[in-house]
Amino acid sequence: MLVRADLKCYACGHVSGQIEGEENMPISQGKIYATSPLGLPKRRPDGRLTCVRCGGPLYLDDVTYIHPRPVRSFGVSGSVTQRPVAKAS
């Protein structure tokens, strides 16, 4: 199941982006999306992400589980009977 979370700064509270990935995968393998006009969060040499505004450490906030959409087909099977159309008099 997919999980999406905001990347929020401990220091200034700015949301630097969002991360999305599988529930059982490490965070480092998730896809990062920019939600700020300042760009993507920066990655420190130890692999942690930092705020695009102040350089502070980030944490995951507002975690949301994304359910996959089921595939639906609305095909017609068999013969189709038509209803009679009422005519105005």
Describe the protein in words.
It is built from no helices and 6 strands. The protein has a 4-stranded antiparallel sheet, with no helix packed on it. Strands 4-5 form a two-stranded antiparallel ribbon. The protein has strands spanning 2-9, 15-22, 31-34, 42-43, 49-50, 58-66. It has 89 residues and is an all-beta fold. Strand 4 and strand 5 form a beta hairpin. It starts with a strand and ends in a 23-residue tail after the last strand. The protein is elongated and about 80 Å long.
Mean pLDDT: 84
| Beta-strand residue fraction | 35-45%
Terminal-residue CA separation: 58 Å
Q: What is the H-and-E element order?
A: EEEEEE
Taken from the alpha-carbon principal axes, the silhouette is: elongated
| Number of E strands | 6
Read across the widest sheet, the strand sequence of neighbours is 3-2-1-6
Number of domains: 1
Number of helices: 0
Cα-based radius of gyration, to the nearest Å: 24 Å
* Proportion in helices: under 10%
Main pleated sheet? 4 strands, antiparallel
Find the structural class using helix and strand composition.
mainly beta
Poorly predicted parts: none
